[in-house]
Amino acid sequence: xxxxxxxxxxxxxxxxxxxxxxxxxxxxxxxxxxxxxxxxxxxxxxxxxxxxxxxxxxxxxxxxxxxxxxxxxxxxxxxxxxxxxxxxxxxxxxxxxxxxxxxxxxxxxxxxxxxxxxxxxxxxxxxxxxxxxxxxxxxxxxxxxxxxxxxxxxxxxxxxxxxxxxxxxxxxxxxxxxxxxxxxxxxxxxxxxxxxxxxxxxxxxxxxxxxxxxxxxxxxxxxxxxxxxxxxx
Length: 233
Known about the structure:
Elements: E1 4-8, H1 12-24, E2 28-32, H2 35-44, E3 49-53, H3 61-69, E4 76-81, H4 85-94, E5 98-102, H5 106-123, E6 135-138, E7 141-144, E8 149-152, E9 155-156, H6 161-172, E10 178-179, H7 180-188, H8 196-213, E11 220-223, E12 227-230
Parallel strand pairs: 1-2, 1-3, 3-4, 4-5
Antiparallel strand pairs: 6-7, 7-8, 8-9, 10-12, 11-12
Keywords: DNA-binding, Phosphoprotein, Transcription, Transcription regulation, Two-component regulatory system
DNA-binding region: 133-232
Domain Response regulatory: 4-117
């Protein structure tokens, strides 16, 4: 079955041109011109991935992402303008997996979509170096790749695909430091450029999610100027 992509943007020219490109590449596409109709549509019929504009009528992309994240870990790519750096960071902190600035190359967007879909699929399958059964256990942490689930001290932690891959990369080698380039490769794949601040934003959000379940959570350590490591219980 071809993957279904949801495009949410109030610019009908973007919706038309991007839809044509994606359909030519074999994707199924659903389009929405505002956040409110997109929320209703995506809750009724989830897509495999969503591309969201930030500034839209009736419900902007930020609120739409927040509402979606209450129900779904579906991969999300934000479209932002070049002068919306704060929005980019806020989007990542709210749970976006990636962002692209306007004006953008449709080939770049297509590349990012394919990379995210591959990562989402890979995170649900057994990877090289993963214990048998696709389950990683590190003290109170249990990651199940086949089910894409994360459990900390019996609490379900809802992670996006990017967040899941970051936690997995750190948990596979507890005590070992992963620099930001290594985490970018683990979460985004090689040959994908992502700013260092993107990783920092994802890590902050991951910590926040764990601390909502356990206020004393302190197992993802920052080594300033170097990177991050997972400290096993």
